[in-house]
Amino acid sequence: MTREQQAPGLPGARGAVQADGLPFRVSVLAAARATARAAALTAALLGALSLAGWVVDVDALKSVLPGDTVSVKANTAVGILVLGLSLAVVATGPGRRRMAAARAAAALAALIGVLTLVEYTTGPGLGIDELLFTDDTAEAATGKPGRMAPNTAAALTLGAVASLCASTSRVPAWCSQIPGLTVGALGMLRLYGAAYAVPELERFGAYTGMALHTALALVLLGTAAFLARPDEGPAGLLTNAGTTGTLGRWLFATAVVVPPLLGWSVLAGEDAGLFGTRLGTALLVGGHVAVFTAVVFVALGVGRRVEVAHARAEGQVRQYALLQAFMDHTPAAVFIKDVHGRFLAVNTTFEENMGLSREQVLGRLDKDVLPPGLARQARASDLAVLIDRAPVQREESITLPGGTQDVLTSLFPLNDANGTPYALCGVVTDVTERVAAQREVQRAHRRFRALLESAPDATLITDGRGIIVMANTQVERLFGRAPGDLVGTEVVDLVPRPLRRRHGALLGAYLRLRAPKPTIMDRELYGLHGDGREFPVEVSVSSLRAEHETLVFLTVRDITERRRAEAERAERYEQLRHIAYTLQHSLMGEPPRLPYLPSAHRYLASVQDPGVGGDWFDVIPLGGHRTGVVIGDVMGRGLEAAAVMGQLRAASHALARTGTSPSRLMTGLDTFVGDLADQLVTCAYLVIDQDVYEVTLCSAGHLPVIVVPPDGPAHRLPAPVGVPLGVNDASDGEVLFEEVTVPLLPGSTLVLYTDGLVERPGTDIEAQIDVLTHALEALPKGGPTDPEKLDRAAARLIRTLIPDTAAHDDDVTLLMIAVPGREGEGTCA
Hints:
Layout: E1 16-19, E2 22-25, H1 26-56, H2 59-63, H3 74-92, H4 96-122, H5 150-166, H6 174-195, H7 212-227, H8 233-239, H9 243-271, H10 277-319, H11 321-328, E3 333-338, E4 343-346, H12 348-354, H13 366-369, H14 372-388, E5 392-400, E6 403-415, E7 421-430, H15 432-454, E8 458-462, E9 468-471, H16 474-479, H17 483-486, H18 500-511, E10 519-521, E11 526-528, E12 534-545, E13 550-558, H19 560-588, E14 599-604, E15 615-621, E16 626-634, H20 639-657, H21 662-674, E17 681-689, E18 694-700, E19 706-708, E20 715-716, E21 721-722, E22 739-743, E23 748-753, H22 765-776, H23 787-801, E24 812-819, H24 822-828
Parallel strand pairs: 18-21
Antiparallel strand pairs: 1-2, 3-4, 3-7, 5-6, 6-7, 8-9, 8-13, 10-12, 11-12, 12-13, 14-24, 15-16, 16-17, 17-18, 18-22, 19-20, 19-23, 23-24
Helix pairs in contact: 1-3, 1-7, 3-4, 3-5, 3-7, 4-5, 5-6, 5-7, 6-7, 8-9, 9-10, 19-20, 20-21
């Protein structure tokens, strides 16, 4: 039962429902459906009795009614039986299986009727007339043996169509009710023929006549088809509880009952000789005029009541003028309905939202104005308010012609002096923008929460005072405490007690920054597990400053394993560095300190390797005051470069002690390097002769030697530069390396170096050599013959060109040699 049927407190709505815009009483509809079922089952019983007569060959059952000379044909009995059952099922109510069975039975009846009509139309038989039984009643007003009357066949066909349409809710009700009325009319014609003794209404020409009880069954079937859906179509016009139903029932009863009775009475008087035909006709007309005059006055009385009610309604509408003016200036959509759901008043906002004028809305139901789904929803809400007699406010989403809107709907009943609702008022406010903003906030919160939970590390969000406002599930794994337990506590509670003041000070200092940037802190930071265990952590800190608050995001990671790995790696690095340092010094050795040739040197290993590189230099006494100086650079780093360097240092030292010239020494070293796979070496060899103050120089791709004279600017020592060692081809006997001898002023200083001293990423190496040259001009003039002064000069030069030696990524070798004057030579000696 619907909510509308359950509304006992509504005036005019007690035991009533609404359909097709008309009010219906539940009891009337139930009685109509019961009548339809009873009529259909009675017709089916008549068909079953007739069919039983054919089965047991009892003529009394074939005729059923005494005195009838026409028997029911076997096919007619079957058709009436299945059609009666079909209509009885349809009148019972919806149900997939029941409707399927009803349609199957109706289809069988339609098949019998249509095939019989085809036989009458085409002439030859189709073999269906005596398909079930042999007809032994051919002489009794029968045409073809076993063939039903043509009007019976037409009635069965129309009845089947009516049943099929009535069983399909999508088909309009009149599609079943009009054929049903036609079936009943065909049966009534046969009954009129019997009542008025008019044989022409029993049969047409030489065709088979309709049995009297067949006519009765058709009347019953027509009635069942007409009343199967009593709240729709023409039947609804008769059964509704309004004025239309009242007038309809009066007129229909008068039209069905009065004319047959008047006609039978006139014919009976004529047959009795009371009056003749002309007087009988006059009496018949007079009787019709009298009856229909009475019906007209009854209809006028009903119409008068309708007019009075309409006038009262108009008066009430005029009283709503002030209310209407108020409603039209309200931005919300406002409407007023009566208890049956008819719109009594709407404002301009309602008209704009629906795209309908006020005239198209007033007096109509929800289903006439609103989209179907919204109409059903609105009517259900109205009934709930009217039944509960209490106002309701809810937020919902509705679909209007202009699109979907989120609205705040307020419904409340309008009660009379007795507290009984007589109308319903609704106020619908568009809150689409507000709801959209709320939904966006909720979506953003869900996305943020999902992002927070997807983080692999423990994440905490605090306010500006360090109070935790949110935490993800990873904090439980890290700190052993549930996220919900941490909300509202101070973040420093997750730090060991002795360190809380320091951690809090760090957080406060970060928040006091004018524009704090995300940063990572991992030095001396520790977390506290729920079981009391302390562990080192890395904390990523960032902040978000809103209008009224500051949020701090802390991402905490346990770095216990990292600290352990770093300690192990540092220990192994120190071991390797010690080994490499020992190897480097053992390979390079310590150059001799010659009293007649002061020198100072610096060697810096690359930070990318454990103290091992390919740079080397050597100072080699050659006898007398002749001294050989060699400097080289093996391309690459690491132990392999150091091993090649050691071999080249030993080879160059051995060749130099033989007294060979610089060019021949380079040629020998080139041959040696050529035997090594994929090696490239730059090298320079000088022979300083202090007896004649000359220097002989040969360079294999090495950087130029810089000389600082005692009384002039520093400059590069002019000398040809050959190709590096290891890339030459001396098969044609060509001299690959050239040497040059240049004079050397007493008191000069020679500076030899490798590319690590002057090479920088993104700069020109020539420009960097000029920078070195200008830095050398700051040395004291006259030559710092004191080894300690020379050593301090080398240290100052390194600091000038390499400010951060701890981060330098290349090997650096610097060798400074002072060539004393003759006075200095005698002093040194």
